[in-house]
Please model this.
Amino acid sequence: MTDLLLKNFDLLDVEAGKLESGQEVRICGEKIAEVSSSVQNGSDVKVIDLGGRTLMPGLIDCHNHISREILAGPPSMLPSMSALRSSSVLHDMLMRGFTTLRDAAGADLGHKQAVEMGYVVGPRLFVAGKSISQTGGHGDHRVRADQSEPCACVHLGPGIGRVADGVAEVRKAVRDEIRLGADQIKMMASGGIASASDPIDQLQYSREEMDAIVDEAARSNTYVMAHAYPDAAIRRCVEAGVRTIEHGNMLSLETAKLMAEKGAYLVPTLVAFRCIQRYGEETGYNDEQIEKNDKVLAAGTQALLVAKEAGVKVAFGTDIAFWHEHQSEEFLIRGEVLEPAEIIRSATIIGAEVVRMEGQLGVIKPDALADLIVVDGNPLDDLGLFQDQGAHLPLIIANGKVVKNSLTA
Model:
């Protein structure tokens, strides 16, 4: 096996938020073997000169949906078509520099295996399978006029959710998702935008049901990620032991301090709300859904500042549904209130903690997995370098393999 030797670059230390010069990186197989100023250059090493560009860890999106039918109504495509379409979504995400993706419901073990086996070129995946929702909750996408019972054969159809009510049912649902290969469990804990019958401030699931979901996940050595907008919903989740709060737009300082105390993570997804504001009506969102989006959009970046003040660890998420090409705009939106180093840290080392791969992802050091991107400039000065569908990322290495190389002198 031929090693890769990367030389002539500035290394972005994401922890310290600064560039370092004079280092070289040797990659052996899927891992980083050496980072030093004097890497040995043997005959079985392929040298790649980065031309003074910036080398940094691959990006991690901790909340996205590669295969998602978000609007209420009948399915718009067969599961087979949905899965095939997701292959191009995955490829394009990788070309934007996202070498790891935590899918927040919709993708399953099959998607993950397709990437691992090389059938699909895309980021390494951490999948949630179907989200767990109460009747009438954010994962119940029946329109109000639909009086049918939710189908028990949830795995045969498209969509992101399954309905389960009561302690026994939610335990069974979590066990089933774990049986099917979920890396983490997604729970719907408040109203949502796309679902038809739940206002944003609705508190979903009883405490007993939430406790059961968290307990089942913990006994299988995994954790719960929870969709929650209002502060009361966030607090209930944290008190129940939920590990990551998704969205969290209406987070209060008091609840944020509780999150920090409990070690819970916040995963905002601000670009999704701006895309719905821009394109929702033409995509099929109705007036009620647009109004709900306006409500959470108004909170916007404030939750970032609240979390920062309380010391909550914040990961990078996007929740893009139909508009994946806008994924990297999340950097610019967060850049309205945060420094680039903070945002990059959220998309690297903090993201690695969320997917429980700290020290393996989000860093450039010996024995870490070789997920690396090269940037035409310094992203600490210009978050625009993550825009334009990866145009400013001439070299991308995922799991030790070069998946893009457009380097010129």
